Amino acid sequence: MNIKTLILIIINSLIALVIALLSFSSYQQFSNVLNDRILLQLNSIKTLKQNQIEHLLKSEWERFESSELYGQNIDTSVLKLPESIKKSNGIYDFTKYHVAKKTTIGFVSNSKKGTSIKVLDYSKIKQILLERTGMGDSGESYLVGSDFRMRSQSRFYPNKTPYTILVKTKGVINAFKGINGRGVFEDYRGIEVYSVYSPIVVQNLKMVILSEIDVDEVTLPLKELRQRLVGLTLGIFLLAVMLSLFLTRFITNPIKNMQKSLRIMAEGDYNQTNEFIKNSKEIKEMFDALANLKASLQGAVKFSDDIGKMNLHTDFKPKSPNDLLGKSLLAMRDKLIEFRNNDENTRIQSKRMLVNGLEDERRRLSRELHDGVGPYLTSLKYYIENRVKNEQKKAEMKKIVDETISEIRLMSNALMPASIDDFGVGVTLTNFIESLKKSTNVTIEYEDLTQQDNSNITNHQAINLFRITQELINNTLKHADARSIRITLSEFDEFISLFYFDDGIGFDINTVKLGLGIINIKERVEICNGTIVINAAPGNTTFEIELPIEL
């Protein structure tokens, strides 16, 4: 095998291998990212619709209970309810008792004044489910009853009564087991879909909600990408073959000329002086240039080694004004010097911020001790100094001691909750929010979707998630003038998701003051290698935070 053929085989084989690996890697990475994003988007849509439906049902129930009207607000000719339901208070699915099996959700309330029954205007739920923003051409959200029959209109079978459609899919079965999950499986049409599912958490109402989108629609960009990658691979390979042919000719021709000259000299024919001298001169210049290049590279390697050891004051001069490598190394050294100086300044600034933070925390703790515990201890001292014997006074002293202990316990829990190590961040946030509800009029809804057993959330991530949530709630209560807060903490196989919402006045992210803690929140997300998306619109302020699972 001659050198030309060998070079062609090696170059083109390497090019083909690199192109194939890059194409496969790009395709796989794009596919994985697409799957995660689609499921995350569907989960957000499902969570929003679930919250809207649950809120609608609860608010309608409260309005129904507070109403002074009694009686049956139903048509008994089309809705035949058993006595067992009429005697039990709550929100019920009346669909199977409807003569035409029309989706019907109603309220039953029994009191001394009598029994009151009312049917919910289903168009309100239908309006929530038909909102399909962000769900493509094939996406839909729908409800399923405990009998595995649909309770909302299917967009694929608009002329069918929902009750006639059987939906016994993997997602529905899991949701009725109380599982909030996601996956890829066949839907009620037998078509593979991306699906997220959850049970509807409303008294006596046994329904689940699902948000789904066809796999074929989602993977359409993947198919187009695959076709483009195949075409691009073939084009690059053909171009590589043409370039390699030209390159091998360019490389082998001087070698053939040198081989011809050496053969002539070996035969003792020195008459080819002009050709021989010409060829020898070209080869000599080539090796001279190679020697100069070697010396230049040796100097550059030595200088690079010095830079790698951070000996940034080593002398080095480019070989010529055209020595781009030498100039680049000098520029890199100057950048490293600048970076080291900036790093030192950053380190000093970080220490200063740390010290200031510690001092602020001490000042806050001192103020809380002075304002919270101080008055209790002063009162206790007064009682002790006067040697109170009165039993009522003694009871007051005991109450002061109990309140002092409770105050110290609250302060300790705010600094670092003990439950975060024992039960995880999900339970800790639940306890924190429940205690917070007692001191505020703002409605706070919290959904814990973390794994109670075998959770992959590290202690470092748990502390930062707790602090971030503390900071967000504190900002809302102090500055947002909000009426409600919704928080969802979800744990998936590859990431942790914290969704925060309030209906306050919002803020301008570009001009917000550092005192609002936004910088602190971003820094905590950054040190956990996470991402954060902020929407600060009035009435719809959201924070979407994702932290990677650290395995």
Quick gist of this model?
Keywords: ATP-binding, Kinase, Membrane, Nucleotide-binding, Phosphoprotein, Transferase, Transmembrane, Transmembrane helix, Two-component regulatory system. This is histidine kinase. The protein is of the alpha+beta class and 551 residues long.
Overview of the molecule:
It comes from Flavobacterium gyeonganense. It is found in: Membrane. It is a single chain. The chain has about 550 residues and is α+β, with helices and mostly antiparallel strands. Helix content is about 55%, strand content about 15%. The chain has helices at about 5-65, 85, 125-130, 170-175, 215-220, 220-265, 275-310, 325-385, 390-415, 420, 425-435, 460-480, 520-525; strands at about 70-75, 90-95, 105-110, 115-120, 140-145, 180-185, 190-200, 205-215, 445-450, 485-490, 495-500, 530-535, 540-550. The chain has a five-stranded mixed β-sheet, covered by helices on one side. It has a four-stranded mixed β-sheet with strand order 1-4-3-2, with helices on one face. Strands 5-8-7-6 form a four-stranded antiparallel β-sheet. The longest helix is centred in the first third of the chain and has 64 residues, at about 5-65. The radius of gyration is 37 Å and the shape is flat.
